[in-house]
Backbone:
């Protein structure tokens, strides 16, 4: 009886000891960045200040009857996820000043 118990314990120990062999860590998911773009009644140059960093870009012309907008890479600003302070000016006048929260892989569309 002792031999059977010892063999069973050894078998269970060997079984648990070999479970981790060959396992690899695989990381997948979304990139840790979000996007901000601006729409207005017409396309024009704007200066955007996000948390003290200045960007120059253009607004995207808003077309109310279209659900998909022609948002190009040059019209989009990439930021880290979190809360950001935005200040937008055009032609020397401040158009917008607000705080926004941007999630990972979210494109925040702000209407001017």
Residues:
């Amino acid at each position: 009886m002792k031999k059977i118990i010892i063999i069973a314990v050894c078998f269970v120990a060997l079984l648990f000891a070999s479970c981790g062999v060959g396992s690899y860590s695989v990381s997948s998911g979304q990139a840790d960045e979000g996007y901000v773009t601006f729409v207005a009644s017409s396309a024009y140059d704007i200066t955007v200040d996000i948390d003290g960093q200045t960007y120059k870009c253009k607004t995207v012309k808003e077309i109310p009857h279209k659900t998909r907008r022609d948002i190009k890479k040059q019209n989009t600003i990439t930021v880290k996820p979190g809360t950001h302070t935005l200040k937008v000016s055009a032609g020397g006048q401040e158009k917008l000043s607000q705080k926004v929260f941007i999630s990972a892989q979210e494109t925040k569309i702000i209407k001017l």
User: Anything to note?
Assistant: The longest helix spans residues 2-17. The mean pLDDT is 78.
